[in-house]
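4.2 Preliminary Data

To establish feasibility before requesting continued support, the project team ran the inverse folding procedure on a target of 151 residues. The structure was first converted into the token representation described in Section 3, and no sequence information of any kind was made available to the design step. The complete token record follows.
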């Protein structure tokens, strides 16, 4: 059985994401995070948007239902799409693994780092950009949590 095709037997026991990512992780080698990387992220985002103390990482390392636990050593919290682009460009050049995380309210652990991936949190990207009264269309940044939007 190919684990990444989503056999119902495997889905009953594991989330499909965990099976596929673990399969991918066993075939791809990523670089480890260094102090130089942390400094580069601080230069891009500002020191306050780079979290590394273990106590600050706890909420990013566990899913909403507390079924899955990760082991990230850094959380990056950009405020703009330009910062996201710069961070991802840097991670690509350095071959660093990244997992995006929005509100971390998913039910399958898809935003929890499996190993030591860097968490890219969109929590500070929470601005409402536009609301069209006539159509009811809201344009907002990626970190907006629907429950918190009051327009």
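Position-by-position output of the design step:
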């Amino acid at each position: 059985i190919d684990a990444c095709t989503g056999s119902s037997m495997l889905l009953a026991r594991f989330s499909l994401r965990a099976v596929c990512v673990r399969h991918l992780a066993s075939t791809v080698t990523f670089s480890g995070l260094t102090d130089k990387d942390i400094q580069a992220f601080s230069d891009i985002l500002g020191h306050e948007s780079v979290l590394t103390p273990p106590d600050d990482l706890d909420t990013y390392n566990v899913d909403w239902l507390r079924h899955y636990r990760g082991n990230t050593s850094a959380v990056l919290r950009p405020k703009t799409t330009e910062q996201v682009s710069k961070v991802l460009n840097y991670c690509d050049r350095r071959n660093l693994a990244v997992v995006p995380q929005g509100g971390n309210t998913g039910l399958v652990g898809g935003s929890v780092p499996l190993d030591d991936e860097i968490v890219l949190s969109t929590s500070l990207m929470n601005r409402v950009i536009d609301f069209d009264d006539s159509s009811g269309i809201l344009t907002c940044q990626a970190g907006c949590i629907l429950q918190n939007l009051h327009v």
